[in-house]
Specification:
CATH superfamily of the largest domain: Periplasmic binding protein-like II
Protein name: Porphobilinogen deaminase
Cofactor: dipyrromethane
Number of strands: 13
Radius of gyration: 20 Å
Function: Tetrapolymerization of the monopyrrole PBG into the hydroxymethylbilane pre-uroporphyrinogen in several discrete steps.
Largest sheet: 5 strands, mixed
Helix content: 25-40%
CATH architecture of the largest domain: 3-Layer(aba) Sandwich
CATH topology of the largest domain: D-Maltodextrin-Binding Protein, domain 2
Shape: globular
Pfam families: Porphobil_deam (PF01379), Porphobil_deamC (PF03900)
Bound molecules: the ligand NCc1[nH]cc(CCC(=O)O)c1CC(=O)O
Subunit structure: Monomer.
Structural class: alpha/beta
Number of domains: 3
């Protein structure tokens, strides 16, 4: 069977959110496909789709995301458009994706992974260690909040939402003294002017799939499948398979403090994973290796052991 390639007369429709980071990821996907199949830019159409999560009136209120409810907040409208055939493929930050896709859709193509680390960003101090008692750190990530408070209980965390540009403005305005951003996002946006310090995974284990771009398609769309196969990065797939199996086994959403990082060395996969109490008062971590092919099994066993150790109620908020 031959693959039907897109053309200017019949372009491949790439769905994406409209944030600068989402657009950068869509452009990267388009240029990889152009290179792989020697296609012109106008053989592709970038289709921007507004999601519930992009709705400012809904999101910019002071309510934390966990109260609004976040299941598919940034993906539902995009997936609906794909099921209805208004777009052919969709480009996502894998960090924001649930471990299961709706019926009829599949998410098995990953671009080579960017830097997985979090960055410490501040306009007033050089490092976390320099923040004084009671200093405000802006973050809307339950994981980063819990990890920060676990190591630095003398700091305060304030809700900090919006895209990278909005958060940088808040720092400039003194709303907080520091924040965390994914290195991958800063790199993809070319924001080399932002003062940032990459945090090693020993100090802040990243979110599952951080730094990875995934491309979703209709399961029965074999032309798109063949095209995406050409730009898929196998090692990224092996790493995400383990990390996402860990997340799935913990039944976590992005509103649960869970972190994991898989790394490859020859035939070996090393998986580090942790769960924290939301207030940071407790952290349970593991660090194991297995053959790459056994990555998912390793992740499931690790998740089971961490859950056992955590016991019931571990993820409940414990008011001070
Ligand atoms: N949840 C928002 C989000 N989703 C993906 C990224 C960054 C890029 C990536 O991790 O792939 C970000 C912003 C951030 O965490 O700073």
């Amino acid at each position: 069977m031959t693959t039907q390639l897109p053309s200017p007369a019949s372009p491949l429709k790439i769905g994406t959110r409209g944030s600068p980071l989402a657009l950068a990821q869509a452009y990267e996907t388009r240029s990889r496909l152009m290179r792989a199949f020697s296609l012109p830019e106008d053989a592709f159409e970038i289709v921007v789709i507004k999601t519930t999560g992009d709705n400012r009136a809904m999101i910019d209120a002071d309510r934390p995301l966990k109260e609004i409810g976040n299941k598919g907040l940034f993906t539902k409208e995009i997936e609906d458009a794909m099921i209805e055939g208004r777009i052919d493929i969709a480009v996502h930050s894998m960090k924001d994706m649930p471990t299961e896709q709706p019926p009829g859709l599949i998410l098995d193509c990953y671009l080579p992974r960017e830097d997985t680390r979090d960055a410490f960003v501040s306009v007033t101090v050089d490092s976390l260690q320099d923040l004084p008692e009671g200093a405000l750190v802006g973050s809307s990530s339950l994981r980063r909040r819990a990890q920060l408070l676990n190591k630095f209980p003398h700091l305060e965390v304030v809700e900090f939402r919006g895209n990278v540009q909005t958060r940088m403005k808040k720092l400039q305005d003194g709303v907080a003294q520091a924040t965390f951003l994914a290195m991958a996002g800063l790199n993809r946006l070319g924001m080399s002017d932002v003062a940032r310090m990459a945090i090693p995974p020993e100090d802040m284990l990243p979110a599952v799939a951080q730094g990875a771009i995934g491309i979703e398609r209709r399961t029965d769309d074999l032309d798109s499948a063949a095209m995406l196969e050409a730009i898929h990065d196998g090692p990224t797939g092996q790493r995400l398979a383990a990390e996402r199996a860990f997340l799935a086994a913990l039944d976590g959403s992005c509103e649960t403090p869970i972190a994991a990082l898989a790394e490859l060395d020859g035939n070996t996969l090393r998986l580090r994973g942790e769960v924290l109490r939301p207030d940071g008062s407790e952290r349970i971590a593991a660090d194991r290796t297995a053959q790459i092919a056994d990555g998912a099994a390793l992740a499931e066993a690790m998740a089971r052991d961490l859950l056992d150790e955590a016991g019931p109620g571990f993820f409940e908020w414990r008011e001070a």
